[in-house]
Write a structure and sequence with these properties.
This protein is 8% helix and 39% strand. The chain is mainly β and 381 residues long. It comes from Neogobius melanostomus.
């Protein structure tokens, strides 16, 4: 029988033969044609270790006894050595929810890789059918994790620079390079996770997106309560929520970026200073320091409170939210209205940035996002 099977060796054992035998003769045939080896073992032995074999290779093992020139019937069996583990294994692009695993496949015949991983407080998961790949992206449930590699069960561990990121720039510094949904912790370790969308591409990345218009599927003519808590699908159209927006812009000085697209035309507005006040102060907007290609339409709305269809904290005439059917920092009434009616190109009721496309051209795509002012795209890596 076979035991102690490794990548390059195994132990063969047998019962001592009865009768008068001169020696025990073991023939080992490689699975590949033309490569066969043999070894003679004395009659006093009942075990023998075959070594210097190849990982992941199939062998035919034939054992028989001899007495002079007389041989017993052969006893033949098949066995395959343990595959060698892949080399240069590494976890890259690590975030709170995923990591990119890369490795160099080992030599020898391999039909699949098995990747198992676990967190410190939950059960183990396993990918059992990873074929012909040198990398695989997996999702993790915790910031601290252990990766168990194949049959060798070699342990790899990793720590994030920001285990509880407060916003997307920290997620970028954790190694997340692709835009998408992530969990952040505005209140730190003790607070609840909040799902947000990170833009990791525009101007160096690290932007936390809080508004997007793209297809008209989401109604933005909402109540104060709805704008307070947020609504929509963060991978499509959504408003993140004024309460959360206040919390996130209160962590430290932040900048605002607005990206817009209409057909083949694109424009952006960058504001070096951006802050949303508390609900007690009606989520008043503070904004300054414009640069960009869209024109400085937001300056008109500086120091204005947020208003919705059911609450206008500081009316200056008409109820702007009702007149233009959105929630915004209206004045009397606007120079930009990115939460207006989708696709409406008349009566000033569309998605408007006057300094770019005028008042009667509804912009098909808008995205509002922020990141810490101290963040430097040139040095974040």
């Amino acid at each position: 029988k076979f035991s102690d099977l490794t990548e390059t060796s195994f132990m063969l054992s047998w019962n001592k033969p009865k009768g008068n035998r001169d020696s025990l003769f073991i023939l080992i045939f490689f699975f590949l044609p033309g490569e066969s080896h043999s070894v003679t073992v004395g009659i006093e032995h009942t075990t023998f270790t075959l070594s210097k074999l190849s990982p992941g290779t199939s062998y035919i093992v034939t054992v028989y006894t001899t007495h002079g020139r007389v041989q017993s019937d052969p006893n033949t069996s098949f066995l395959t050595t343990v595959p060698a583990p892949p080399t240069l294994f590494q976890a890259t692009e690590v975030s709170d929810t995923k990591a990119l695993l890369k490795w160099t496949p080992s030599l020898g015949k391999i039909d699949r890789f098995v990747i198992s991983y676990e967190s410190s407080k939950s059960k183990q998961w396993e990918f059992s059918r990873v074929k012909n790949l040198k990398q695989k992206q997996i999702h993790l449930s915790r910031m601290m994790y252990v990766l168990l590699q194949l049959q060798m069960m070699s342990v790899f561990s990793g720590k994030l620079r920001f285990p509880f990121p407060t916003e997307c720039s920290q997620e970028l510094l954790n190694g997340a390079l692709q835009s998408g949904e992530v969990d952040v912790y505005p209140q730190g370790r003790e607070g609840q996770a909040v799902r947000v969308y990170c833009d990791m591409e525009s101007d160096g990345g690290g932007w936390t997106v809080f508004q997007r218009r793209m297809n008209g599927k989401t109604d933005f003519y909402r109540t104060w309560s709805e704008y307070n808590t947020g609504f929509g699908n963060i991978s499509e159209e959504f408003w993140l929520g004024n309460r959360l927006l206040h919390n996130l812009t209160s962590i430290g000085p932040v900048s605002l970026r607005v990206d817009m697209r209409s057909g083949n035309d694109t424009a952006y507005a960058h504001y070096a200073n951006f802050f949303i006040d508390s609900e007690e102060r009606n989520y008043t907007l503070t904004i300054s320091g414009y640069t960009g290609t869209a024109g400085d339409s937001m300056r008109y709305h500086n120091n204005r409170p947020f208003s919705t269809r059911d609450k206008d904290p500081d009316p200056l005439g008409i109820h702007c939210s009702r007149a233009y059917m959105g929630g915004w920092w209206y004045k009397n009434c606007y120079k930009t209205n990115l939460n207006g009616l989708y696709g409406i190109n008349s009566n000033n009721q569309g998605i408007v940035w006057i300094d770019w496309k005028g008042k009667d051209s509804s912009i098909p795509f808008t995205e509002m996002k922020f990141r810490p002012s101290r963040f430097s795209p040139a040095t974040h890596g």
